Amino acid sequence: MTTEVTGVDTRGASERAPRVLLYSDDVDTRSQVRMGVGRRLAKGAPDIEWLEAATHPVVVETADAGGLDLMILDGEAAKSGGMGLCRQLKHEVFDCPPVLVLTGRTQDAWLASWSLADAVLAHPLDPIELQRVVAGLLRTRMARG
User: Fold this and answer.
1) pLDDT for 64-114, tens place per residue?
2) How many domains does the chain have?
3) Whose CA is closest to 86, among 63, 66, 52?
4) Is the omega angle on the peptide bond into residue 124 within 30 degrees of 0, that is, cis?
5) Can you give the CATH number for the domain in which 100 is found?
């Protein structure tokens, strides 16, 4: 797992940085998501702390450890797709953070709803929509404390 500091959305610099777990077996997909979201989502907001995972066991271990504000899971990841992983985490992790699932096509949104995902976006990712969805999920989670 690689830890990398990058972008956030909260209401001020005094707030803590949100922690986002980004899962994909494809380094290009992870890079595309980080670049699409940006370092932060608002001027003066703290940078997002990105935790990256390329395998199912690392995602489960990191989620079990707690302290996450959002998980972004690639539904198209090989061996262990993000939709099944999302459903597992929603059933097994106490106070599971919100999950954004990335699908290969818009038509897969129905399957992502089965996964219990809080939000779904399809490839190709629109950076403006990606940032809007991530910001909304983070605001909701961070407001809960």
Assistant:
1) 999 999 999 999 999 999 999 999 999 999 999 999 999 999 888 788 789
2) 1
3) 63
4) yes
5) 3.40.50.2300
